[in-house]
Amino acid sequence: AFKVNTFKKRVVNNPVFRNSKAKNTSCNFSAMPSPVWTYFKKMGNPLCISCGKLVTSTNTTNMWFHLEKQHHKIYIDLKKKKNQNAEQEVDGDPVGSSFSENLPTNLIVESSQLVTKDNDETIHQQQMPMSTNQPSPAKSSESRSAGHSLKPNDVSSATSETPVPKSMVQTVLRHRFVKTSKAQAERITMAIAYFIAVACVAYSIVENTGFRYLMNILAPNYHVPSRKVFSHERVPKLHQATKQIIIEEIKEADYFAITTDGWTSTNSHKFIALTLSFIDENWKLISRVLACHDLNISNTGENIQCLVDNILIEFKIEKSRISAGVSDRGSNCIAAINLLGFEHVPCFAHAVNTKVEEIVKLDFIAPTLKKIKNIYNKLSRSKIAKNYLESCQKDVGLKPLKMPS
């Protein structure tokens, strides 16, 4: 693992760095004072040199605000100077000009590794996680000697004789040494929680080797919390925040329609969901899934009614604002909507699907469907037949299409 303290110690003990210190130069990793102090005198509270007024608090934000309101010309000039210094810092030396100018040329920095060499001794090398089928270093060296190695011209930065761009070195030094603030760490953690919720991935993703490697590249000083932190704290917190947004959103609408449906998962777990639909002030249809509950009890009309009642209370929706309830033709859903006192509207898509299923069972259609199924089975099982169909499509100028799954 990369150890910042060890790396900094080796850099500071480097002969080049010691020589630079002897010349009254130093490596300054700390931030420079704000340029706003040029126009203020440090006392109990900052004293403005231009007008003699005291500014409450030593926070530079208040000092900038004072210059903007009372000395606008000075404020504009100082802002320009600050921006110029920031640009020079990005293009120049963010960790001390004298130190970076004297950095040894054998500091090798690549996108997938950070290697520092001093007196032919490797200090650190960060690599991608090795898979179980990756060849060992001995085998790799053998394959390289057999003519499979990269040519020197392919990776110019792989030799210690090639100078490394100073900006690249400075970027890595800043990226590695700057600690992740609490606010930034919180943002990253909530972003991971949002990714888990929206992508519907398992909580174990945060323990995946590839994911941790990705986070180590993006935020080296950020520690990824355990899966329990996300399952017990972060995702529930995100759920509550989203729920509050929906509650505030539906306050603007007058009337709603609900849609409910149930299904059984591949693990034989029964679920029931409730969706709220309404039209906003711009005549745009808005739909929000209020809940998707695991139904541990019998899915009778009475139980579904009780569940829907609790969800409506949870989201502070009065029954008088519900104009209709949409469901399939299941007797339990119809009974639940009637018990709730809503007008039942059959689901159009479900009605069409039901009629199509009835049509394909008619006697005069069954023989045709049988032939189609035989053709499909032949093409899906035989690669020769599939290739022949594709060549026929090309011969007549049609775009080759794959068989539907």
Automatic annotation (TrEMBL):
Where is the major localization of this protein? nucleus
Q: Name one GO cellular component term.
A: nucleus
Could you tell me where the Polar residues compositional bias lies?
A: 126-146
Disordered: annotated segments: 126-166
**Its domain of life?**
Eukaryota
Alphabetically, the GO molecular function entries are: DNA binding; ligase activity; zinc ion binding
Q: List where in the cell it is found.
A: Nucleus
Which Pfam families does the record match to this protein? zf-BED (PF02892)
The record's keywords, sorted A to Z, are: Ligase, Membrane, Metal-binding, Nucleus, Transcription, Transcription regulation, Transmembrane, Transmembrane helix, Zinc, Zinc-finger
* Sequence intervals crossing the membrane: 188-206
Q: GO:BP terms for this protein?
A: post-embryonic development
Residues in a coiled coil are none
Domain BED-type span(s) in chain numbering? 34-71
Q: What is this protein called?
A: E3 SUMO-protein ligase ZBED1
Gene name in the database record:
ZBED1_6
